[in-house]
Design a protein that fits this description.
Layout (H helix, E strand, L loop, with lengths): L5 H20 L4 H10 L11 E5 L5 H9 L4 E6 L2 H8 L7 E5 L14 E7 L8 H11 E12 L5 H21 L3 H12 L4 H10 L3 E7 L8 E7 L3 H5 L1
Parallel strand pairs: 1-2, 1-4, 2-3, 4-5
Antiparallel strand pairs: 5-7, 6-7
Helix pairs in contact: 1-4, 2-3, 6-7
Protein name: Class I SAM-dependent methyltransferase
Organism: Streptomyces labedae
Pfam families: Ubie_methyltran
Amino acid sequence: MTLLRDEHLAAAFDHAARSYDTLVAANPGYHAHLRRSARRLGLPRGGEGLRVLDLGCGTGASTGALAEVLPSADITAVDASAGMLERAAAKTWPPNVTFTHAPAERLAEAGVTGPFDAVFAAYLFRNVTDPDAVLRTVHGLLAPGGRLAVHEYTLGGRRTDRAVWTLVCRGVVQPVATLLGDGDLYRHLWRSVVGFDTADRFADRLRANGFTSVRRLPLPGWQTGITHTFTGRRPTRTETAR
């Protein structure tokens, strides 16, 4: 099976939207891990006076994490899948949360413009055709000194990391997803992770695209060595001038 990309991936997510929340709810720590990654942005005062972009919001799990951690921030949530976004927008949200349908590669066309004080991207970068181009877009959307947090499946490089990931996908996730009619998407999930950057390589990718103060932070539980938070900053003008 080849990886799903662009409109084919969006269509697969559209189809899976009806059961997506049920599947992720069965993942121990899923929502708690998203909140941990949101806290790792390190934004002060509950986000008061700040603009935050939730890039690839899906059915709103990442948006919910941001809204809980940063209740005073102005949160713009974006996703390429109309079906996932419809599920997200149908939930109850405070007035400081808005949703926009747009792929990460065409944000400006949808009216999503900076500067943002922070960007949060969960489970996004291994699903885009050109992650470097999207990182450059994110860099440009951030205000100088703005912060990025990426919450992503990125294997740590040990054989056991890939083995655990494969066991979970093939033994649990894929059989259930196949019964729900979404086998292609969750086979893509397995392959997209094993074919993507290791954690160290993704951290290097952030640095190569202009982010500073890059940190790779593990998540606890069964996802240790499988899922990481990456944080970084767009340099201030003073730092850039040095």
